[in-house]
Each structure stands twice: as structure tokens, then as C-alpha cells.
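can u do me a favor
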């Protein structure tokens, strides 16, 4: 699994090459590699290739978010696939971890559907 980094303004864009799942077993590696970055920079993690996420993956994202906030930095997600965005919305993290425009776009269709 390789990583690619890019810098935009004051944010590091981090793409984890080959990462297709954010599940138990790869969560600790993600935290180990990304925590030092979020403590020193604003970080946007590119989830473009992630097809599956579980509770351990969500916990890793929350941990990274907390580490960033402790040091006055931001941690967000970029290029979040629809299925992963739905799961983040279900647990209420879409508005916290995803950019506001993306999170709002995910919520709008839900408001248009009937409740029953």
C-alpha cells in the first residue's frame, strides 16, 4: 500500500494507493501512518478507492479527527464513494468528516423521500 501526498494551500491531500477497504486489520496501520501528519497539518484523506468500511474503520477516522483537533488542525475526507458516504451519514459523521457541500448533497435526497 503506497501513499501519495499533495499540498493545496494549507492542507495535505493524502491518497492511500491500493486501499480498497477501511476495516479491522488495516485500521491500526492507517492510524499509525496518518496520526503524525494530522498533528502537524490539515489533512484531507482521499477515500476514492474505498469500497467498504466497518466499525473499526469508522473508529480510525474518529481517532484521526480527534488527533487533528487536539493540535488545532482539520481532518476531512475527500472523494468519498457513495456507499461509504451513506454509512458515514448513518452514524452522523458525514457533516463532521466530509466537506460541507458533499455532506449537504448526501442529505438532500433523504429529505425528499417519504418517511414511510
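np, heres the sequence
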Amino acid at each position: 500500500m503506497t501513499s501519495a501526498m499533495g499540498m493545496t494551500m494549507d492542507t495535505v491531500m493524502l491518497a492511500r494507493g491500493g486501499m480498497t477497504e477501511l476495516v479491522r486489520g488495516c485500521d491500526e496501520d492507517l492510524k499509525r501512518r496518518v496520526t503524525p501528519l494530522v498533528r502537524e497539518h490539515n489533512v484531507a484523506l482521499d477515500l476514492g478507492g474505498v469500497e467498504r468500511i466497518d466499525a473499526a474503520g469508522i473508529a480510525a477516522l474518529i481517532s484521526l479527527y480527534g488527533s487533528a483537533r487536539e493540535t488545532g488542525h482539520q481532518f476531512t475526507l475527500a472523494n468519498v464513494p457513495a456507499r461509504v458516504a451513506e454509512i458515514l451519514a448513518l452514524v452522523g459523521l458525514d457533516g463532521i468528516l466530509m466537506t460541507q457541500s458533499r455532506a449537504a448533497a448526501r442529505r438532500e435526497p433523504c429529505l425528499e423521500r417519504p418517511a414511510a
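The CA atoms of residues 31 and 74 lie 15 Å apart. hope that helps!!
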